[in-house]
Amino acid sequence: MQFSFVIPVYNHAASLASVLDGCIRLGLPVIVVDDGSTDGVSEVLGQYDNITVVRHGKNFGKGAAIRSGLKEALKISDFAVTIDADGQHVPGDAFKMIESIKEGERPIVIGARKNMQGDASIPWTSRFGRKFSNFWVRLSGGPVVTDTQSGFRIYPVKEVLSLKSRAKRFQFEVEILALANWHKIPVYEVPVSVIYPEQGMRISHFRPFVDFLRNSSTFTRLIAMRLILPPALRRRLSLS
């Protein structure tokens, strides 16, 4: 099995170099998708000649960036390890996730962030958002997992690209779990570390109100499909 890193990036110039350095040290190919950044991301990327860079001319959203990265990863890898560019994840935890994959399986592996509810340094929006999406992913016919919003994942590239996800932004990561479960793609979790910088230092583009509405729209569509459509038709309509 071949693995590569896929890093979606949007205005993460301040944290990107440390994430790249951590990934490169692990010896896996690194693919960065610059999703229309307007800060100093291009200058940071220009310092590296051992990575593959995919550029969007404008910001399309995290989901669109992940799909672009998966298409590039398909050329060289069976699996893609997605990791956020904000520095909250420890790249070395990817090996724990990789080692959890059993021979012959092609699952989605979620890096479930530890101590998300008990750590006061973690923003309330992250704690609430995690509980909210966990519940609605289950109602949408998705897997029963504890961290549906984690961006640290392993995706089986061909299988995920075959799923017809409509979400282009943060909602991609919850929608893809429901679609995967509909198609009986295994989904499970491996505990990973999480690092939250001091308040005001973390680079996040999550907007609680706007993204709450977008999440609600995505879940409404998925739940309606689950309730109204026969499983066979639902699966056929959710393939690219």
Description:
- 40% of the residues lie in helices and 16% in strands.
- The protein has a single domain (3-237), classed as Alpha-Beta Complex (Spore Coat Polysaccharide Biosynthesis Protein SpsA, Chain A), CATH 3.90.550.10.
- It is of the alpha/beta class and 240 residues long.
- Helix 5 runs parallel beside helix 8.
- A seven-stranded mixed sheet has the order 3-2-1-4-6-5-7, sandwiched between helices.
Question: Roughly what percent helix?
Answer: 25-40%
* Portion in strands: 15-25%
At the first level of CATH, what is the class?
Alpha Beta
Mean pLDDT over all positions: 89
Number of beta-strand segments: 7
CATH architecture descriptor name: Alpha-Beta Complex
Could you give me the name of the CATH homologous superfamily? Spore Coat Polysaccharide Biosynthesis Protein SpsA, Chain A
Shape: globular
Structural class of the secondary elements?
alpha/beta
Reported for the largest beta sheet, the result is: 7 strands, mixed
SSE order in H/E notation? EHEHEHEHEHEHHEHH
What is the spatial order of strands in the main beta sheet? Answer: 3-2-1-4-6-5-7
Look up the CATH topology.
Answer: Spore Coat Polysaccharide Biosynthesis Protein SpsA, Chain A
Rg (C-alpha, Å): 17 Å
Q: Given the structure, what is the number of helices?
A: 9
**Total number of domains:** 1
Distance between the termini: 24 Å
Query: What low-confidence regions span 5 or more consecutive residues with pLDDT below 50?
Result: none
